[in-house]
């Protein structure tokens, strides 16, 4: 069981920002920006490479939730949405999740 599954089942506390039937969004405990929220599907999907056509609605819901979180947290000057897939990308938990980062100037290229 991943740390995200433990947060979803409320075994581990988290500062929840948004919750819907199929996803949960909470503040990252190791933030990389003043606002750093993780959006996690409640159904475990290890990574983006494992997604199938049948996951299309869930993937769309994750991006729509990112926009909803940004509006709710008033990220009016912009925000970054990141999905890490695999260890070389910095993925540390094998459960698909979206990072929403904001309230600081982002550089390019990332990493």
Radius of gyration: 13 Å
Order of helices and strands: HEEEHEE
Superfamily (CATH H level) name: HIT-like
**Tally of distinct domains:** 1
The CATH topology annotation reads as HIT family, subunit A
- The total strand number stands at 5
Helical fraction: 10-25%
> How many H/I helical runs?
2
Supply the CATH architecture. 2-Layer Sandwich
Mind telling me the CATH class? Alpha Beta
Largest sheet: 5 strands, antiparallel
Compute the separation of the termini in Å.
28 Å
Instruction: Give the averaged pLDDT, no decimals.
Output: 95
| Strands ordered across the widest β-sheet | 1-2-3-5-4
Which spans of ≥5 residues are poorly predicted at pLDDT below 50? none
Beta-strand residue fraction: 15-25%
* Shape annotation: globular
Tell me the structural class: alpha+beta
What does it look like?
The chain is an alpha+beta fold. It has one domain: HIT-like (HIT family, subunit A, 2-Layer Sandwich), CATH 3.30.428.10. The protein has a five-stranded antiparallel beta sheet, with helices on one face.
């Amino acid at each position: 069981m991943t740390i995200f599954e433990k947060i979803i089942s409320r075994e581990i506390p988290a500062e929840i920002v948004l919750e819907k039937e199929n996803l949960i969004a909470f503040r990252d405990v190791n933030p990389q920006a003043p606002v750093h929220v993780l959006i996690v599907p409640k159904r475990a999907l290890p990574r983006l490479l494992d997604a199938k056509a049948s996951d299309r609605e869930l993937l769309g819901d994750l991006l729509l939730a990112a926009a909803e979180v940004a509006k709710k947290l008033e990220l009016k000057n912009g925000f970054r949405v990141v999905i890490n897939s695999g260890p070389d990308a910095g993925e540390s938990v094998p459960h698909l999740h979206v990072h929403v980062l904001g309230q600081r100037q982002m550089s390019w290229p990332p990493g």
